[in-house]
Amino acid sequence: MQLTDEDAEFRGRVRQWLEQNLTGEFAALRGQGGPGREHEHFEERLAWNRHLAASGWTCLSWPAEYGGRDATIAQQVIFHEEYARAGAPARVGHMGEELLGPTLLAFGTQAQKDRFLPPIAEVRELWCQGYSEPGAGSDLASLTTSARLDGGEWVITGQKVWTSLAREADWCFLLARTEPGSRRSAGLSYLLVPMHQPGITVRPIRQLTGTSEFNEVFFDGARTARDLVVGEAGDGWRVAMATLAIERGVSTLGQQVGYQRELDALITAARRTGAARDPLLRDRLARAWIGLQVMREQVLAMLGSDSAAGAGGASVVKLLWSTWHRDLGELAMDVLGPSSMLAQGPPYDLDDWQRLYLFSRADTIYGGSAEIQRGIIADRALGLPRQSR
Ligand SMILES: Cc1cc2nc3c(=O)[nH]c(=O)nc-3n(C[C@H](O)[C@H](O)[C@H](O)COP(=O)(O)OP(=O)(O)OC[C@H]3O[C@@H](n4cnc5c(N)ncnc54)[C@H](O)[C@@H]3O)c2cc1C
Predict the structure, then answer these.
(1) Which of 69, 48, 44, 45 shows the shortest CA–CA distance to 59?
(2) Which of 132, 184, 193, 216 to mutate to test the pocket of ligand 1 (most atoms within 8 A of CB)?
(3) Contact by Cβ (8 Å): 70, 18
């Protein structure tokens, strides 16, 4: 990626703003939050996110009319790099900002964009993603949650599962069967549903990390307005797949620059523990560093080319970062040695490395599992015959 003088000037502005603002009450938030650690200082991080928003540092790629900056890809990369370099805390509004927002920009009505995009950009409304169900994960098209029209409203009945941040969310974008008797991907609709209502119950699920980021969500006659369907009613599959492609590709950019920080910290730890002199661990550390360069190049190539994404590019990116991060968790345990197996305190206090190791097991599952991504690559990039069900 060629950086211009304007880009350099933009980098300077981002860096300066972060230096001047990640101070005072926000200084303690450095390094807080993120996958497996979403419970850390949630309210304070929300306040930080709103502070970012007030200065126009959310939703950078969106059009200015909806609260964005019309930022170029280079500027988005620069922002994420500087954000990670400053150790700024993980953001809390990423479902809205990175998944629903771009989907609404592509498929939403004018009224939906006007209603929902500004509160996402201002971090006034948080979102969760209601796709997976107990009987529909990788095979999402087998979902059974239904929605039927009752006067001016959709009435939703069913259950979602693994719904990240559902307890914190104000709204859910979900996929429901709106044509009774329809099968597989036909007859589904992409609905926007308010979470704070009597027909919705959220039950946290305790994870391997001891924390509960994801949840079961029960819909028992929950309601949403008739016009809160994105795309045409019955055409939700197409919209849902567009959100998934975004989740697997572009939205991982910010995440990846955070990985550099984790790797740097692990290299420092390896020097401290003596692991840096172990030939096998040195080899794995070097491979991790190479993997990070490959990943970055792959994302940048994909961002600059629509055709790469069409030929399974988003799946390649998802596979690269998820397996890289899972391997980094394993490497961290080996670098830290036997002490990495001890909890930090009763009953189950984990340090950052242990949390990384345990949570990164999920990386190759959510957003489409590694096996599913390889299947997509086999279909779309290699043109192999489709797998029979
Ligand atoms: C941390 C985390 C957060 C999540 N957040 C959300 C969220 O916010 N919203 C949401 O809707 N969902 C969320 N999910 C759910 C996630 O999308 C599903 O877990 C995922 O799609 C896999 O579905 P499943 O768990 O039902 O596993 P299954 O689909 O039952 O898969 C089980 C195993 O079989 C393999 N498999 C399945 N089908 C095939 C096939 N055709 N070929 C080869 N192998 C196959 C899978 O790779 C996997 O190893 C989250 C999951 C995790 C772990």
Answers:
(1) 69
(2) 132
(3) no
d(CA 83, CA 22): 10
Q: How far apart are CA 273 and CA 296, in angstroms?
A: 29
Distance CA 110, CA 305 (A): 28
**Residue 63 CA to its chain's centroid (Å):** 21
Query: If you search the block for the tokens 């299947």, which residue do you land on?
Result: 375
Active site members: 247
Tell me how crowded residue 164 is: count the other CB atoms within 10 A of its CB: 18
- Residue 224's closest CA among 237, 215, 233, 213? 233
For residue 361, what are the CA distances in angstroms to 162, 208, 227, 330, 356? 15, 9, 39, 10, 9
Containing 195, the helix (H) or strand (E) segment is none
Other beta carbons within 10 angstroms of residue 370's beta carbon come to 16
**What confidence category does residue 247 fall into, taking pLDDT thresholds of 50, 70 and 90?**
low
| Tens digits of residue pLDDT in 97-144 | 989 999 999 999 999 999 999 999 999 999 999 999 999 999 999 999
Element holding 308 (H helix, E strand):
helix 306-308
**45, two tokens:** 């991080």
**Range in 316-320, 325-329, 373-377 the model is least confident about:** 316-320
State yes or no: cis peptide before 204, omega within 30 of 0: no
In sequence order, which residues have a C-beta less than 8 Å from that of residue 252 and are 6 or more positions away?
Answer: 299, 317, 318, 321
Protein residues whose CB sits closer than 6 Å to any atom of ligand 1: 128-132, 137-138, 162-164, 214, 362, 365-366, 368-369, 371-372, 375, 387
